[in-house]
Each structure stands twice: as C-alpha cells, then as structure tokens.
Amino acid sequence: MNAPVPAPLDVKFMNLTATVLFVALALLLLSAAALWASRHAVFAIRSIAVTGEVTHHNAVTLRANVVPHLSGTFLTLDLTAARHAFESLPWVRRAVVHRDFPNRLRVQLQEHQAIAYWGAENESRLLNNFGEVFEANLGEVEQDNLPRLQGPDGQAAQVLVMYQTLQPPFEVMDLGLEQLELTPHGGWRARLDTGAELQLGSGGLPEVLARTQRFLQTLTQVTSRYGRKPEALQSADLRHQDGYAIRLRGVSTLAAALPKN
Predict the structure, then answer these.
(1) Has this prediction a pTM greater than 0.70?
(2) In which band, very low, low, confident or very high, does the pLDDT at 244 lie, cut at 50, 70 and 90?
(3) Strand, coil or helix: what is 233?
(4) How many other CB atoms are there within 10 angstroms of residue 122's CB atom?
C-alpha cells in the first residue's frame, strides 16, 4: 500500500492564506454588522425609567439634565460614565444604571436625606444621615428647623454622632439643641433654641456627654434659686473641673458646684 504523498508547500501556503482571508473577512463582516447595529436609530436611548425613593427628581428632569451628557447608544453606552452623570445631579447620592433592551435605561436612585445644615450660615452645604456633606439648593430643603453642625473637614460624621447623642438629654429638659460645633482646637460649642450659648469643653463623646448630663441634672435646681426656669439660661461654661459657670437673663454670672459622688 502506497503512503500518502504530502501536499506541496505552495498548496499548503495557499490553503493557509485562504483560511486567514476567510477568517479576516468574517471578522470584518461581524465588525461592520456590529458598527451598523450600534449606530442604528432603533438602539438610541429612548426612555429612562426611574426607581427608588426620589423626591427631587423625576424621569422628565433626569432626561433633560442627564441625556445630553450621555454618548453612545444602548449597545455602546458607558454605564460607568452614565452613573457618574446621574450622581453629579444635586441631591443624588447613588445611582445604579441598567440597560433594558433595546433602547431603555433603568436607573435606581438614592437621594441624600438632609438632616442638618453644615458649615457657616452663609454656606449651602448639608449633611445627610450617613454623615456625608453635600451641596444642594437650600430652598429645596423640605424639613423645617434643621440643626446647624460645623467642624473641620473630614469630621462631619463625628459631629453628627455627638449631636445625636446630646440631643435627647436636652429634649428631656424641653431645650432644643440648635447648633453644635467642633472647633479646630477640639472644643465643643453649642447653641440652644432659646439662644443660650454653651461651652461643652473638649474630649470624646463619653466625656462631653457626662459633663452635659451632670449640668442638665442640676440646672433646674440652680435656676429655681433665682426664680428662673432653664429657659432663662443665657450662657454656660462646662469646662470647669468641679462645676460650671452660668449666666441667667437678669442675673449675674453664677458658679455652681457639681454634686459630690
């Protein structure tokens, strides 16, 4: 039996060349088809469906403010860039963008929940319930009587925790904690809704809370000695080791000793 004769080199080369050309042509056709499909009008973004607890935006405003910043069609749209475009809008904290075939975007939005003003009174920054600072139109704030918190950059979450801890003891006394500030030197200052200014001293949450509670537990007793109520408090300085100094409306500065343990 005769052994098969190997094909000549020129025939092998021609077969290889034909295969390469066939593959290249197929890839070219696929690329052309993909390019045609990506540019076809049927895949242009037609609508945006919005989900989530959204109060400051809707599909109409989102389309007007975001779509002009989107480039590409359903097939070529960069979802990361689209997410950044949505998150650049005021009040939007987080956006998750999905494609819905063939020409629709589905966006789940999480808005900032403003719980305090942040910074000086001439600033337009707010603080959300995660302790994050954001900027928005203050005229769109729906809640009334938000407190004002202030502190060094990067300390917003710490200031929020301190406020949330100190607020209940003041509420028990029917006093509203209107402002709280962490100074650059680490001291805490507060302002009540009655206008009273408080120096709470420095330190972490346990120390400041302990001083504040001791102060509030004796405030009614001290003010009653002078025929006043806690609402008459004008200022207080809790930085004294064994007591505090207060000023009442119509009464000179007073020094009160803390009760002995």
Answers:
(1) yes
(2) very high
(3) strand
(4) 5
Same domain, 122 and 163: yes
Q: Mean pLDDT: which of 5-14, 47-56, 58-67 is highest?
A: 47-56
Mean pLDDT of 235-259: 81
* 15 is a domain residue: no
Tokens of 39: 């540019």
Mean pLDDT calculated for residue range 80-101: 92
pLDDT of residue 18: 66
The span from the CA of 254 to the CA of 246, in Å, is: 5
Q: Do 248 and 224 meet the contact criterion of CB atoms below 8 Å apart?
A: no
Which of residues 6 and 53 earns the better pLDDT score?
Answer: 53
Q: In this structure, is residue 17 part of a structural domain?
A: no
Number of domains in the chain: 2
One domain for residues 56 and 85: yes
Answer whether residue 192 is part of any domain: yes
pLDDT single digits (tens) 214-233: 999 999 999 999 999 999 99
In the listed set 111, 129, 153, which residue is the last one of a domain according to the structure? 111
Q: How far apart are CA 110 and CA 83, in angstroms?
A: 12
Structural element, H or E, at residue 145: none
Q: Which two tokens stand for residue 227?
A: 């025929």
The CATH number that applies at residue 49 is 3.10.20.310
Rounded to a whole number of angstroms, the CA Rg of the chain reads: 33
Determine contact, residues 188/201, Cβ cutoff 8 Å: yes
For 145: left if phi > 0, alpha if psi spans -120 to 50, otherwise beta; the answer is left
Cα separation, 128 vs 118, whole angstroms: 10
Q: Are 80 and 206 contained in the same domain? A: no
Domain that holds residue 59: 41-111
